[in-house]
UniProtKB/TrEMBL annotation:
GO terms for biological process: proteolysis. The active site is at residues 113, 270, 298. It holds the Pfam family Abhydrolase_1. This is Proline iminopeptidase. SUPFAM superfamilies: alpha/beta-Hydrolases. It is found in: Cytoplasm. GO terms for molecular function: aminopeptidase activity.
Length: 319
């Protein structure tokens, strides 16, 4: 797939480290760009997706101090794919611990998909620490969103070929609740079954993330370690309903962040996190900039979406 010309050139880190955030978890973080610049933190998707060097490139490195973080169990954080003590609220606390560790007062928060969920929840818990929000592919972990993508009758109607591969590991008599069926296998003792199910779960998402299916993206799901972390952690969060007390937790707490400058970028043809979620957020938060990308799906790497995300980061340079 062609690379967006809007991206900044590849850069190297000036700092990499590991932060112990609990008796169990140690998180990888890195910094690039301007060491004395304006802080921005990139929150990856999944949960369980991890960060990559590509994620540094949405931000002007002469202006921004760019911080990337692998959340619990993801990427280079340890232990890999660990579900113990791994909740939304633990991740929110981790972001604060990293902010304090790096001696940052306030930062711009950037997140897409699950990263948008975490960005919103973090901002609602710590609004005084957020300069601005850049959000893409809105996901609020509501039952309707999970049903759309992981149960029959939603995204399965658009990608029936990929759906058939997703359902294969699950017996017919358990196909009334795929999240529960996958959770049982991804947390089970049969290592071969865990890997097989992790690849099927991950391939489903990677096959549906772009308007045009990207073979490189799909191939990523065949990597055992990445697929296991991605699938286990995602399914763990979804099985536990995001650890939220109510289904509409994020919408119910928008007043806490209404004053924060924000940009919401949503692919019109996003099959993973359908546009209705972003629209629901927009309706209760009209103060935030909102834009549909007319020729994009879910991925941040699609050309129009990438360009708009970079533009948003440009707009917040002066904060």
């Amino acid at each position: 797939m062609p690379e967006s010309p809007a991206l900044y050139p590849k850069i190297e880190c000036f700092d990499q480290g590991f932060l112990k955030v609990s008796d169990i978890h140690t998180l990888y973080y890195e910094q690039s760009g301007n060491p004395t610049g304006k802080p921005v933190i990139y929150l990856h998707g999944g949960p369980g997706g991890g960060v990559s060097s590509h994620d540094r490139r949405y931000f002007d490195p002469s202006v921004y101090r760019i911080i990337l973080l692998d959340q619990r169990g993801a990427g280079k954080s340890t232990p890999t794919a660990c579900l113990e003590d791994n909740t939304t609220w633990a991740l929110v606390d981790d972001i604060e611990k990293l902010r304090e560790h790096l001696q940052i007062e306030k930062w711009v928060v950037f997140g897409g998909s699950w990263g948008s969920t975490l960005s919103l929840v973090y901002a609602q818990e710590h609004p005084s620490r957020v300069k601005a929000l850049i959000l893409r592919g809105i996901f609020m972990l509501r039952k309707s969103e999970l049903r759309w993508f992981y149960e029959h009758g939603g995204a399965s109607n658009i990608f029936p070929d990929a759906w058939d591969e997703y359902v294969k590991p699950i017996p017919e008599n358990e196909r009334d609740n795929f999240i529960a069926a996958y959770h049982k296998r991804l947390t089970g003792s049969d290592e071969e079954e865990r890997i097989r199910c992790a690849k099927a779960w991950s391939t489903w998402e990677c096959s549906t993330s772009k308007l045009y299916v990207d073979p490189v993206e799909v191939a990523k799901a065949s990597e055992d370690i990445w697929a296991l972390a991605f699938a286990r952690i995602e399914c763990h969060y979804f099985f536990n309903k995001g650890f939220f007390k109510t289904d509409a937790h994020i919408l119910e707490n928008v007043d806490k962040i209404r004053h924060i400058p924000a940009t919401i970028v949503q692919g019109r043809y996003d099959v993973v996190c359908p546009a209705t979620s972003a629209w629901d957020l927009h309706k209760v938060w009209p103060e935030a900039q909102f834009e549909f990308m007319a020729d994009a799906g879910h991925s941040a790497k699609e050309l129009a979406t990438t360009a708009r995300l970079v533009q948003a980061a440009e707009e917040y340079k002066t904060l």
